[in-house]
Amino acid sequence: MTGASPGSSRLIATVDALRLALAESPDVLSFTLGGTIDEETAAAAEAYGVPREFLDFCRVLDGASCGPSVRLFGLEEAEETQFYCEPVIDSPLELSPEKLFCIGMINQAAVFLDRAGGGVLGALDIGADWPDAERFEQLAPGLETFFLERLATEEYVRLASIDDESAEYDDWLKLLRRAGLAG
Q: Is the pTM here over 0.85, yes or no?
């Protein structure tokens, strides 16, 4: 990683800890963590309207499969899933590709980056019925914060609705614990 690459030192350190834990964990699925994107790929994607905040994040971590119910898209997958931003008939949500960029899924609910304010938005409480929600909840003020405070901590257990019985089988939780990010 060059010194000019976006991403806070905390994000870089967290991802490095996760990569090290993954390298030392043959029992954890290797596709749990995505790679990184290069500057040329980021510039081309930005020219096609991908938000800079998402691209900056992908320069450090290009997606993460955080268990069976939580996925943070990498660039390629995100580009293929923007149909979630399209308006839905009878949905009270203000869905619009000009306003939102889909960055992942949690419990079958789409998670979005607000293009104007940079916040991470979702209607997670109703899962696959998320288009029926009255409004989006702000999950974090930005993508980096969302990852660091919601996905790379013990908070992941609540967000992913993991119970005590399934916790021992969750690869992301194993990885967080082995990286020293969750208890």
A: yes
